[in-house]
Each structure stands twice: as structure tokens, then as C-alpha cells.
Amino acid sequence: MDKIDRHILEVLQKEGRLSTAELAERIGLSPSPCARRLKRLEDEFYIEGYQANVNKAKVGITMSFFVEVSLSNHQEESIIAFEKALSEMDEVINGHVVSGSYDYLLEVVSPDLNGYEEFTRKLHKLTSVKDIHTHLSVRQVIHKTTLPTFM
Question: Residue 121, exposed/middle/buried by CB under 10 A (0-12, 13-18, 19+)?
């Protein structure tokens, strides 16, 4: 990956709907070499996909929570089953294995408190869940959709 590839990634993170011709013009290449570089970045998974950033409030998602989850069992098959169950829960939009006093940190969204309560019931039904702690997000102060430029 060279400086031009990094520039391509930087521009696409901000404006993913650019045509190849517009991207080429923006980075100072002709369309053919730009298209080849773009294809290589996709093939090598530097670019994992393209998506739209959806306004949560406009689609009825008014609440966000951060949920700390501790597991009672750290056997591999339990962890695999837990993570599979999480991946099937639409409310979970991000999940991380973390170090510290709990095992997972989840970002969960819901249209309302009743929806969140239903989610916690599902979570508590998982046999490997020992404990959960919830933090309600009062207000989002930063929302970045791009990686830092030191990549």
C-alpha cells in the first residue's frame, strides 16, 4: 500500500458513492489505473464493502445502550455459542471482547425501553451469561465513519 492507495481509501471513506472517474480525478490518476488500484484494494480486503450511514432517529431507533456482559463459562464451545447468539440479535450493532472486570462490551440500540427490556430477556436466557450491566447513552458526542489518517 502506497501513498496513492491511502489517498484512495481516505477519499472513499468520506465519499463512498464516487464513480471511478470522479475518484480518479480527485486523486490525480487516469480512470484505468485508478480502477485497477480500487479493484486490488477490494480484492485484498482493504475495502470490506460499501454502505450507507443511516440516521437512527429517522428510522425509529431512539435509544442506545452499552452493555457489559460477564460469562459464567469460558469454555470454547460456550464462547462460540454466545457469540453466534449475539450475531443473530438485531439490537446488537457492535460487540467487543474486552479485558477487565467483564468479558464483552456491546452496543445495543432500541426504539424504546420496552424493546431494550425484551433484548435483556433474550440475553439472560443464554446459559453462559453470568451478569450484565447497562449504561444508557444520554447523547452521542462523536460519530466518526472514517479511520484516522495515520493508517
Answer: exposed
Query: Against a cut of 0.85, is the pTM above it?
Result: no
Hunting for cell 452499552 — which residue is that? 66
**25-60 pLDDT per residue, tens:** 999 999 999 999 999 999 999 999 998 888 999 999
Show the CA angle centred on residue 142, arms to residues 18 and 55, nearest 5°.
Answer: 55
Closest CA to 108 of 121, 95, 125: 95
Domains of the chain are: 3-43 (1.10.10.10), 57-136 (3.30.70.920)
